[in-house]
């Protein structure tokens, strides 16, 4: 029983992480067909902000991290992606790759390649035992924070004018503009929200490992991208479901892979993604209403 | 009201519209006719800001529209209903209508206007909370017209509103157009159903190969002449 | 189909011009001492990589982020089969018996590396070639990560993240130059071949190409395998030249450099691949000098690691924003020289990033 519960907690924690990152990627992709590889560097910016402000009260540190990431996301959109808006997806992808490389190397010039560490919220490292099941506080916080963010995002998307406009733009950008939806505003909002999600992700990630390095965003962005692809790129509910599916898959592989093969976990995952894209390019759960009309 | 002067529209290397000038006055319905590929949709695209204007000018009551993005043009009172029933399929009918009112600031009257459109297109009320993707083609066409009207346009651009609809629904579309004229709306109408268009329109322009080839007031174009226009015979 | 000799003649002249250009650049590179010699050697290998990449990307219109994986496969193959047996027993004690006593010559190893990479590409291409556009590009990202992860974990063959060391006579600059020129000729010949022409047609308009009987997946698959072979050979030369490799050698950084070179030059032409590689290599070398700390006119610039990469990223971004079709505009040099005035008039207008046709003709049709 405990092992099953432990498994559920592990899967949910990992799934929450992936869902957070996948949402940020899917949001931007839905609106401007951009697979934002530089989403990983947003996480990096968040992590180094935590490093720089760790002497502050922890609430201020966390707030600062989220704000810094959101600002960076807006800057990125304004400087690099707005000028080439409407270019084909591969060009956009290459551009995001260049932005990612740029930010990472600017960070290298400032912080060098030596990893840093930060211990923001000591609570994250402690755990709680309930009926024989030991759960880290970080897991609890991750699961809850993600749940809160998901609900908030869902409410925003369905109950506010800006949210409905964003969904309309994601479905048919040109028609949304013809209805008067302001493209600059809706894209900037999407980047701001993506930045917010990346900022929270960065906090949880630093809380988990305590370590900060230039490549800290790479694994999250790859997994986020994978989860978004599982859910059918661009679909927000798909990204969330994809995140949790990926969480269960990683937890399962962790449990089931024999020791010699454990290192191949990521290889299996990405080979799986490769196969998925080849066999079902629209994602694992293609919802008829969500698939693009011709 | 609308003045188009020497309009050129280009797709990459291909010129779709060449030196087209036309005028639409307040309260008029003006038809834009021509065979496939004549440049009708491109003309509407250029007026609505969907396509960039390569040459010439587009003026709405003296104010320059060309060069402005689509989202600004709709704020100046020009609303396009594009061909192909572009509903937001994953949004509900209610949300689609709300998007139509994006440019409005008078919140209270928007609710009233939505109510009026639901009176006009009663089928939309039935599916008010359903996803627009579930509607039939005819219902979607009603939704996109209602949505465009919610921006309270001064000029409505309709692109092939009756395309692919059953005869009954075609009647409904043309009835609606008559109704809108009665309400004082100005309409520029692109239609493949030329005979119906000639009936309803005050004047018609004829495009072929991207150029304006004829301009006729109501009744001036006989069915035979229309046939010629579409078949490409009978140069004027 | 009648084959006129004229296009072939033009391609021949173009090949001669491009090879002369590369030879000249190489010659200039040898004038600056051992450090520059080495940079020149790496640049020549990158030239093979970029031209090899162009064979698939330029003609199919599908952007691949995974090609560096084929280079890695080639490099590891050569490292394993060329290593002296004593070294092998030390570095890879668990290698299966049939590999343990192997000692191939450089030429055999290069050929084998190319073939292994091509076979691998063939297997991958079976599912991959069903895809178009962005989905295909993303699948190649997944491929790159999978390969990286396997290289890191297949300790028996790769010694994991520790990497392998290969101590052999490095290829001479002249050898690299010859290989680069052969690649240029091969890429131009491929473009002129029936398959190359059909593939380019599918890039321009996939639907129309299918309508005239181009199978698309078949042409794409061939281009993919051919370009993987070239990358495999490049990997073989690379490991012999630098002497040590690890999984990170064939990951994002190298992918980025190769993409930057191809995009900066213009990815639909061999001329673009060649010019892009030369320009970016020179720029990178200058940036590396600055990065290591120099004094220019009394102004001391302190050493800052990462500066060269920042510069490269800025160059790429600049090109993407200002001239998305690259320096050559995606055309061959021979097309840039107007021979008849009428021709010149018909030259396509400069594509515009916002309104015109896609600046980089990638993924012509989405699935």
TrEMBL record, chain A:
The keyword Membrane applies. GO terms for biological process: amino acid transport. It is a multi-pass membrane protein. It is found in: Cell membrane. Keywords: Amino-acid transport, Cell membrane, Membrane, Transmembrane, Transmembrane helix, Transport. One of its GO terms (molecular function) is transmembrane transporter activity. InterPro entries: ABC_transp_permease, BCAA_transport_permease. Its main location: membrane. The keyword Transmembrane applies. The chain crosses the membrane at residues 12-35, 55-75, 87-111, 131-157, 186-206, 212-231, 238-257, 269-289. One of its GO terms (cellular component) is plasma membrane. Belongs to the binding-protein-dependent transport system permease family. LivHM subfamily. This is Amino acid/amide ABC transporter membrane protein 1, HAAT family. It comes from Geodermatophilus ruber.
From TrEMBL, chain B:
Keywords: Amino-acid transport, ATP-binding, Nucleotide-binding, Transport. One of its GO terms (molecular function) is ATP binding. InterPro entries: AAA+_ATPase, ABC_transporter-like_ATP-bd, BCAA_Transport_ATP-bd_LivF, P-loop_NTPase. PROSITE patterns: ABC_TRANSPORTER_2. The keyword Transport applies. Residues 2-234 form the ABC transporter domain. The keyword GTP-binding does not apply. Pfam families: ABC_tran. One of its GO terms (biological process) is L-amino acid transport. Belongs to the ABC transporter superfamily. This is Amino acid/amide ABC transporter ATP-binding protein 2, HAAT family. It comes from Geodermatophilus ruber. The lineage of its organism: Bacteria, Bacillati, Actinomycetota, Actinomycetes, Geodermatophilales.
TrEMBL record, chain C:
Residues 337-367 are annotated as: Disordered. Residues 337-353 have a biased composition (Basic and acidic residues). It is found in: Cell membrane. The chain crosses the membrane at residues 39-57, 64-84, 104-124, 131-151, 171-190, 222-242, 254-284, 305-326. One of its GO terms (molecular function) is branched-chain amino acid transmembrane transporter activity. PANTHER family: HIGH-AFFINITY BRANCHED-CHAIN AMINO ACID TRANSPORT SYSTEM PERMEASE, HIGH-AFFINITY BRANCHED-CHAIN AMINO ACID TRANSPORT SYSTEM PERMEASE PROTEIN LIVM. This is Amino acid/amide ABC transporter membrane protein 2, HAAT family. It comes from Geodermatophilus ruber. The lineage of its organism: Bacteria, Bacillati, Actinomycetota, Actinomycetes, Geodermatophilales.
């Amino acid at each position: 029983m405990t092992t099953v519960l432990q498994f559920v907690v592990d899967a949910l924690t990992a799934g929450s992480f992936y869902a957070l990152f996948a949402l940020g990627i899917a949001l931007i992709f839905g609106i401007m067909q951009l697979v934002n590889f530089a989403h990983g560097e947003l996480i990096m910016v968040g992590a180094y902000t935590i490093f720089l402000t760790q002497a502050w009260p922890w609430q201020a540190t966390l707030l600062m991290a989220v704000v810094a990431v959101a600002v960076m996301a807006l800057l990125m959109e304004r400087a690099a992606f707005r000028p080439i808006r409407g270019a084909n997806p591969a060009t956009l992808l290459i551009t995001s790759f260049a932005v990612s490389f740029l930010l990472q190397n600017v960070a290298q010039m400032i912080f060098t390649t030596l990893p840093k560490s930060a211990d923001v919220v000591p609570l994250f490292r402690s755990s709680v035992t309930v009926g024989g099941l030991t759960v880290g506080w970080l897991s609890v916080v991750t699961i809850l924070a993600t749940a809160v963010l998901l609900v908030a995002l869902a409410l925003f998307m369905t109950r506010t004018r800006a949210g409905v406009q964003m969904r309309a733009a994601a479905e048919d950008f040109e028609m949304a503009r013809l209805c008067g939806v302001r493209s600059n505003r809706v894209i900037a909002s999407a980047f701001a929200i993506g930045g917010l999600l990346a900022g929270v992700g960065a906090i949880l990630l630093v809380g988990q490992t305590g370590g900060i390095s230039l490549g800290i965003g790479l694994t999250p962005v790859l997994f986020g991208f994978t989860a978004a692809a599982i859910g059918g790129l661009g679909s927000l509910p798909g990204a969330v479901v994809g995140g949790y599916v990926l969480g269960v898959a990683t937890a399962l592989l962790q449990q089931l892979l024999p020791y010699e093969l454990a290192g191949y976990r990521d290889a299996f995952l990405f080979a799986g993604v490769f196969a998925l894209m080849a066999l079902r390019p629209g994602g694992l759960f293609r919802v008829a209403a969500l698939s693009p009309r011709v | 009201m609308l003045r188009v002067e020497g309009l050129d529209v280009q797709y990459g290397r291909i010129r779709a519209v060449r030196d087209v000038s036309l005028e639409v006055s307040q309260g008029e319905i003006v038809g834009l006719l021509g065979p496939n590929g004549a440049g009708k949709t491109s003309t509407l695209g250029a007026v609505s800001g969907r396509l960039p204007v390569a040459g010439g000018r587009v003026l709405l009551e003296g104010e320059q529209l060309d060069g402005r993005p689509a989202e600004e043009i709709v704020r100046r009172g020009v609303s396009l209903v594009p061909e192909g029933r572009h509903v937001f399929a994953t949004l509900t009918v209610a949300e689609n209508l709300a998007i139509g009112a994006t440019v409005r600031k008078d919140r209270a009257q928007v609710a009233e206007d939505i109510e009026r459109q639901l009176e006009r297109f009663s089928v939309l009320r039935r599916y008010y909370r359903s996803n627009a993707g579930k509607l039939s083609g005819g219902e979607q066409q009603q939704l996109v017209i209602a949505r465009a009207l919610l921006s309270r346009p001064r000029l409505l651009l309709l692109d092939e509103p009756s395309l692919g609809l059953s005869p009954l629904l075609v009647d409904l579309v043309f009835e609606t157009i008559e109704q809108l004229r009665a309400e004082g709306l100005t309409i520029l109408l692109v239609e493949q159903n030329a005979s119906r268009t000639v009936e309803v329109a005050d004047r018609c322009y004829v495009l072929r190969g991207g150029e304006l080839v004829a301009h006729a007031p109501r009744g001036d174009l006989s069915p035979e002449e229309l046939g010629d226009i579409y078949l490409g015979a009978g140069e004027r | 189909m009648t084959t006129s000799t004229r296009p072939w003649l033009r391609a021949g002249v173009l090949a001669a011009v491009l090879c002369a250009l590369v030879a000249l650049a190489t010659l200039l590179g040898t004038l600056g001492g051992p450090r520059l010699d080495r940079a020149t050697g790496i640049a020549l290998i990158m030239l093979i990589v970029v031209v090899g990449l162009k064979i698939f990307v330029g003609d199919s219109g599908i952007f691949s982020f995974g090609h560096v994986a084929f280079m890695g496969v080639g490099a590891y193959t050569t490292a394993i089969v060329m290593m002296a047996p004593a070294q092998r027993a030390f570095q890879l004690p668990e290698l299966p018996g049939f590999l343990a006593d192997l000692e191939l010559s450089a030429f055999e190893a290069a050929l084998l590396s190319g073939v292994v990479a091509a076979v691998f590409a063939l297997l991958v291409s079976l599912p991959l070639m069903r895809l178009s556009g962005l989905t295909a590009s993303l699948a190649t990202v997944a491929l790159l990560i999978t390969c990286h992860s396997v290289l890191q974990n297949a300790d028996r063959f790769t010694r994991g993240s520790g990497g392998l060391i290969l101590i052999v006579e490095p290829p001479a600059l002249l050898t690299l130059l010859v290989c680069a020129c052969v690649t240029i000729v091969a890429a131009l010949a491929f473009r002129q071949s029936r398959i190359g022409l059909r593939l380019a047609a599918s890039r321009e308009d996939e639907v129309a190409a299918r309508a005239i009987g181009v199978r698309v997946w078949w042409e794409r698959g061939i281009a993919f395998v051919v370009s993987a072979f070239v990358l495999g050979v490049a990997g073989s030369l690379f490991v012999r030249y630098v002497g040590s490799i690890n999984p990170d050698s064939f990951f994002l950084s190298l992918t980025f450099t190769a993409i930057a070179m191809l995009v900066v030059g213009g990815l639909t032409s061999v001329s673009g691949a060649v010019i892009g590689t030369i320009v970016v290599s020179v720029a990178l070398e200058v940036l590396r000098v600055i990065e290591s700390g120099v004094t220019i006119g009394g102004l001391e610039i302190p050493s800052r690691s990462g500066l060269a990469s920042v510069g490269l990223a800025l160059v790429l971004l600049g090109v993407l924003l200002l001239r998305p079709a690259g320096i050559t505009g995606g055309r061959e040099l021979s097309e840039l020289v107007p021979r008849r005035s009428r021709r010149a008039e018909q030259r396509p207008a400069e594509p515009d990033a916002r309104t015109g046709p896609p600046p980089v003709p990638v993924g012509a049709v989405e699935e």
